[in-house]
Amino acid sequence: MDTTVVVTRCETYESPAIAEAIARQFDLLGGVQKYVKRGDSVLLKPNFIAPRSRRHATQTHPVVILEVARLLKDFGARPFVGDSPAWGNVFGCVKKLQLDKDLAKLAVPVRQLNQPRWSNVSERNRKVGISSAALEADVIINLPKFKTHQQLVATFAVKNMFGCVAGKRKALWHFTRGKTEEFCELLIEIYKYLSPALTIIDAVQAMDGQGPIRGRTRPLGWLIAGQDPIACEIVCSELVDIDPANLPIVNQAKVMSFGCHDRKKIQTIGDDYSQSIATDFKLPILVPVRFSLLHVCKSICKQIILLAKGQKKA
Q1: I want to staple 30 with a disulfide (CB 3.0 to 4.6 A). Which of 34, 170, 176, 211 is the partner?
Q2: Which range marks the domain in which residue 46 is found?
Q3: CATH number for the domain including 108?
Q4: How much is the average pLDDT of 172-198?
Q5: Is the dihedral of CA 185, 190, 193, 194 positive or negative?
Q6: How far apart are the C-alpha atoms of 191 and 14, rounded to whole Å?
Q7: Alpha-carbon Rg of the chain, whole angstroms?
Q8: Residue 92: pLDDT above 90?
């Protein structure tokens, strides 16, 4: 895998600034044509964990999504935005971000990542219900949010692809893969199976504290991009003075020989961040990965109701 990571300074969500930063990232990584062909169906997979407004750092910022979509449309690809949020549905998340009308103007569809297809994601014959929309896309571009996570310390690149698991099966996997190492192994297997062409991480404003939903929104001023998600995780950890050895996903990737976890082999290009490292990034108080059976049952019931309402509105 390519071990080049682009770090681009961008301190505002104004559309021209984001568009310029994203175009620069693609150029530095070899151009759009390296990842996408004209006519390709491209899933843009943001972090739509819950319907919260753009004032919070809970979801990938709408301007980042929009400008990646615009760039791909101009190139001649066919992007669509999709996710399977843990709370609510993709349409509610898009509306809460006030992104629905802008995507409609660009003729970029929004899809709930449902209709699972049981897929063997590992050598252990582990089958996971992956959304057929994700599986049928020609290309996936991963658009996660830079956040702390009260179960995994922080999540930057890998975990966002867990959103391609359809519906509330994500909660069931929390229940059945209750050990941190087992859960991280599952996350990495899903990422490897779906194999996004590129990851672009929104860290213009990040979340620290008790992420991934109710943490503090704070400015960082960066967009980070690369093909190798573990290299991206390591560079992101440097931006906020986290030892990568404290990140369960990075540790498990090393056990699985996935990605580049040797910092000496990771080339960073773009803007220098050595003098801009955030040393006051607040880490979460950790809680167990395993959900209780009662938590899973309540969550499934609530999600069925929310998805039914969303389908009626859609």
Answers
A1: 34
A2: 4-313
A3: 3.40.50.11440
A4: 86
A5: negative
A6: 31
A7: 18
A8: yes
Amino acid code (one letter) for 35: Y
Please give the tally of structural domains in the chain: 1
Specify whether the CB–CB gap between 268 and 5 falls below 8 A: yes
3-state secondary structure the chain: CCCEEEEEECCCCCHHHHHHHHHHHHHHCCCHHHCCCCCCEEEEEECCCCCCCCCCCCCCCHHHHHHHHHHHHHHCCEEEEEECCCCCCHHHHHHHCCCHHHHHHHCCCEEECCCEEEEECCCCCCEEEEEHHHHHCCEEEEECEEEEECCCEEECCCHHHHHHECCCHHHHHHHHCCCHHHHHHHHHHHHHHHCCCEEEEEEEEEEECCCCCCCEEEEEEEEEEECCHHHHHHHHHHHCCCCHHHCHHHHHHHHCCCCCCCHHHCEEEECCCCCCCCCCCCCCCCCCCCCCHHHHHHHHHHHHHHHHHHHHHC
What would the pLDDT profile of 253-294 be if each residue is shown by its tens digit? 999 999 999 999 999 999 999 999 999 999 999 998 854 444
Query: 303 falls in which pLDDT band (50, 70, 90)?
Result: very low
Distance of CA 288 to the CA centre of its chain: 21
Q: Which of 15-29, 155-169, 270-284, 285-299 has the lowest mean pLDDT?
A: 285-299
Between CA 186 and CA 180 the distance in angstroms is 10
Two structure tokens written together for 99: 């992104």
Tell me if 54 sits within 8 A of 97, measured CB to CB. Answer: yes
Contacts of 262 (CB under 8 A, 6+ apart): none
pTM for the whole structure: 0.91
Residue position matching structure tokens 């409609």:
104
Question: Are 237 and 152 contacting, i.e. CB atoms less than 8 angstroms apart?
Answer: no
